[in-house]
Design a protein that fits this description.
alpha+beta, 11 helices, six-stranded mixed β-sheet, globular, two-stranded antiparallel ribbon
């Protein structure tokens, strides 16, 4: 199989159907389902509130050009940035617990539909608003910045669906786009892992959303391409379900290792166990 550069991933048209899928699900939930644990200490209602928050932030900062208030403390390190993001997320979720589930549903529906309108209005070559930090970028292309926003919508809905027993999302293309964006953080995850020039690490993801990608060591850095060389130094196989859980912090430690089948030099898979496509 030949190796080819990764083209941009266009997610503009996916915000609307993905959002409508969650709106339909929320309308069907019982009162008890809203209180189920979805991720960490967050209940389903907290994740819905978070999705509303990040959608409104994107609309305010990007569409409306609102200048947000400065952080309450200096951002001098990656740890400072994580603490800041965690704090603003927690502030909104805490305040939202005063709201009914009907109000949360209506707020989410309004925010995600406006977000879809905005995404669809953007030119594909529009500049990004934020750099994608988990990919090691201070500035990012617009499609990548927007794609990161889409992965938030997808993976948090997946967490809600799992918590409520609603089953996976109906369209494998939605997960495919999520993976295409999330995998672009792998060169940053591998940045401290030295290897000889030309070393290739192939990741084969099975299922309708999957594919085959390869990390190449070139000029002292790692580059992600599509495809697989004839004899990679290491090959890692996993399912699409395991891939999204790993990259969005839902598969850790021994569970992550058990979800992967590694052939070749097993040490080349080590950075993959800690790879994350979210701010953690």
């Amino acid at each position: 199989m030949s190796l080819t550069p990764l083209p941009p991933t266009d997610t503009r048209h996916l915000f609307r159907p993905t959002g409508e899928s969650l709106i339909t699900l929320l309308a069907s939930l019982s009162a008890e389902a809203w209180t189920r644990q979805a991720v960490g200490r967050w209940q389903v209602r907290d994740v819905v509130a978070h999705l509303t928050d990040i959608g409104l932030r994107r609309l305010s900062f990007h569409r409306d050009r609102h200048v947000p208030p400065p952080p309450p403390f200096p951002i001098e390190s990656g740890a400072d940035f994580v603490r800041f993001i965690n704090q603003i997320n927690a502030d909104w979720v805490g305040a939202s617990r005063r709201l009914s589930t009907r109000q949360l549903t209506e707020m989410y529906a309004g925010s995600v539909r406006e977000l879809a309108d905005f995404a669809e209005s953007l030119p594909h070559d529009a500049p990004g608003l934020f750099g994608v930090s988990w990919a090691g970028e201070v500035e990012s292309a617009g499609w990548f910045d927007l794609g990161r926003e889409y992965t938030e919508q997808w993976h948090h809905q997946a967490q809600i669906r799992e918590a409520t027993g609603a089953g996976p999302m109906p369209d494998p293309a939605w997960l495919r786009a999520t993976l295409l964006i999330a995998l672009r953080g792998l060169p940053h995850a591998y940045r401290a892992h030295a290897a000889p020039e030309g070393t290739a690490v192939t990741l084969a993801i099975s299922g309708p959303s999957g594919g085959t990608w390869t990390l190449l060591r070139e000029a002292g850095a790692w580059r992600l391409v599509s495809g697989e060389p004839g004899a990679p130094a290491a090959r890692v196989a996993m399912t699409g379900d395991a891939a999204w859980r790993l990259l969005f912090n839902g598969l850790q430690g021994e569970a992550a290792r058990e979800a992967m089948r590694v052939s070749g030099d097993a040490t080349l898979a080590d950075p993959l166990y800690g790879a994350r496509s979210i701010v953690v």
